[in-house]
Amino acid sequence: MAIFELALALGAPLGRAAMGGGQTYLPMRLRIASSVLAIFWALAVLLVLRRAGYRVPVFSFKVARAGRGSVLSHLGLPER
């Protein structure tokens, strides 16, 4: 998802597959939204990897625990 959103933000002709599919190339305001989403998804991956036990120096284990819950609730998934 992060790579897809980054490609959209950089102007790739993938707009028909995202954000309502109204145009092939996203306008600037939607490119900005895609860049924010790319950062969100990259951080979400790092949080989940840290919570799974991988060494991710960006987040402490405590932050990863809270962040993983936030990501899962954002996706509508139950936390175990």
Q: Can you give keywords for this protein?
A:
80 residues; mainly alpha; elongated
Task: Outline the structure in words.
The relative contact order is 0.12. The chain is an all-alpha fold. The protein is built from three helices and no strands. The chain is elongated, with a radius of gyration of 15 Å. It has one domain. 59% of the residues lie in helices and 0% in strands.
Number of strands: 0
Beta percentage is under 5%
What share of residues is helical? 55-70%
Q: Supply the number of structural domains.
A: 1
Structural class: mainly alpha
Morphology call: elongated
Biggest pleated-sheet summary: none
Overall mean pLDDT score? 88
Radius of gyration: 15 Å
Keywords: Membrane, Transmembrane, Transmembrane helix
Transmembrane segments: 30-49
What is the gist of this entry?
Keywords: Membrane, Transmembrane, Transmembrane helix. This protein has three helices and no strands.
What's the helix and strand layout?
Elements: H1 2-9, H2 28-51, H3 61-75
Helix pairs in contact: 1-2, 2-3
Keywords: Membrane, Transmembrane, Transmembrane helix
Transmembrane segments: 30-49
